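Q: Convert this sequence to structure tokens.
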Amino acid sequence: MEDMEIFQALRGFGLTEYEARVYITLLENGSMTAAEISSASGIPYSRIYEVLTRLEKKGWIESLSGRPKLYKPLPPSEAVKIVKMELERQLENYENVVIEKLQPLYEKQALVERPDVYIIRGIENVLARVIEMFEGAKKKVMISMSNINIEYVKVIEDALRNLKIRNIKIEILTSTDSSLEALSRLSKYGEIRTRDRLYGGGVIVDDHEVMLLLMGKSNVLAIWSTHIELATLARDYFYYLWNMPDTIRFKGD
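A:
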């Protein structure tokens, strides 16, 4: 029998080429002596006992006492079951070793969570990162910023328009001293609510990416992170302010 698919399957179960040839020979002919197997399979007689011994240990054949000794194949269904049980036992042992030896190393090095955290300086760099965040949004964007002016809006408006085209929900929380022109432009892209006072601000995308804004008199500083807990905390605070009684929905023009 020269069926490459069968040979490949047997090799997949851990048999060498010689072992596969011996097993198939026994299936085709029934019980045979070592000399007969060597002749029928084409395997050198000097190697045949070595191959037969390995096959018997692996559970594919069994030997029958007598003179001369005979070898017969086990049913393929039984042999496969034996091999699977042995593989499962080995995998379980490997699993125990890997978890026992390597898991403590993983936890010791604090690899469970190592989110990215960056400091961004300057309004141009901050707005550029905001646009990148918008581009990666999948469901929702939350923006919180006091005193929004029209120049900021012009920089990010194309990105906001793209969010709307992609049906990304946009919620904007700002202070009442923001530019009316800026708010009117922003209202085309999402819901806006205003408060008399709003300190700091930030951008939250899909509850897993956050930028916290620190607005100074002469400079803008932002902390950007993919830290899930930080993003969740920022989201919860955003909605705390969003739903306060003194937060008013901006109706636009």
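The chain is about 50% helix and 20% strand.
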